[in-house]
TrEMBL record:
The chain crosses the membrane at residues 20-39, 46-67, 87-107, 119-138, 178-197, 204-237, 249-267, 279-296, 311-330. The keyword Protein biosynthesis does not apply. Keywords: Membrane, Transmembrane, Transmembrane helix. This is HTTM domain-containing protein. It comes from Flavobacterium pallidum. It comes from the Bacteria.
Amino acid sequence: MYDKFIRPLLIQPATGLISNPNYLMLLAFFNGALLMNFHSIYRKDLSFIIVLLFFGIISMINIRYWWASVANGVFTMVHFGGKFPRMANHSNLEFFIEIIILVLLLAKIANRRFSIPPNMAATLFRFSLITVYFYTGFHKLNTDFFNSNVSCVNDINTYALSILTSKPIALSSGISGFFQYATIFTEIIVPFGLLWTKTRKYSAIILLSFHIYLGLTVFGDFSALACFLILGCLVDFEAAKFDFRLLKYIRTYLFLIIATNLLKPFLDKYIVAQHVPHIHGAIFNIGAILFFIFYLKNYQPTGSKLSRKEYILPACCCLLISVWSMKTYIGLGNSANLTMFSNLVTEKSRSNHLLIDTRKTKIFDFEEDNLLILKLDQRLQKEKVEGFMLPVTEFRHRAANWVKSHPKWKISCTLVYKGDTTRFADLSKTDFIRTKWWYRYLNFRKIQPNGSCKCLW
């Protein structure tokens, strides 16, 4: 019955607005990345995750239903739009990708003959991914990342290895040093291998292995986005044929992602908290490993040259990512722009980057106008800002949100600003809740008052 009726329906070629099976596969993978990103939103909005799962299941049933992935993209884009840019890095990237998908779809609706040159699509993926990886590594080129006492590689790898060994682990300085240089090599050097046909497959394997390892921690959501982007770097958009055996692995991949979402409430409630990311990521990893083993086993890299005009769009994407990420060195924010887990310090007084001295590059001094938080209302302890400094623009933005989110609270705070220590019994009655709309886009992380910079998101 399956071979006679169901299988022909599932593997028949797509027709209509989007017919290239490679684009359909990528949309399904992007849908999976969105599902992984919102795996815990059930705690705040159960209806939100139900809608996402509904369209995720439709994609799993048949990737020809591209509108299910677009529906989830539009649905989550509205959510992202209300929070951008104060989101995790992968959420910002997904927001940008959703905008591009929507613009391309509207262009296709307006003109059914509209199409992207196949080579441009692949180049766009490769240039963009290389740029993202480059800056995640570039920000790590600082003295504290290479300090084995505080390096961010300690936090991530200690956690990952502790899960694998079921006991606490502390990295020695030698192992920490190995991970430091391995991380820099993986993020700055390896991605360039995606540009050449001879090294593309092996570069993808290294990057996928890197994300499968991270998937065992709390980064399964970022790993799902990485799988989508890496797959986009491998796909031959010119191919007239599509290996329909891949459909089984795509469905398995999406099924396991959906399963992790459905299991998440159970895992949170009944499994020891520290093991939840491991189990959640391990389930996702199974689907990713099965798909990419089959895909790469049968992968034949191709390469075609682009005209100069066709390089314009990929180059513009690289430029936009660069501006977004490098604004930290001129004083326009140092969070959510690929500086995560980098140990980077950008204050004029103690810049730690090995190549960029922010004493010479800072144009704006928002970060230098800061205050020290000595004590914050007990009900806001999750903010974890006591004993840290915040730029005044950042504090104003957060304080205004605290007051808005908890209108019935009298939020107390003790802080030091311009040498004066002041205790406020109710922040809502102070000038510190007076904010401007553009403060939202000056996204700064908290500042450690002294010593080597410890690891921060």
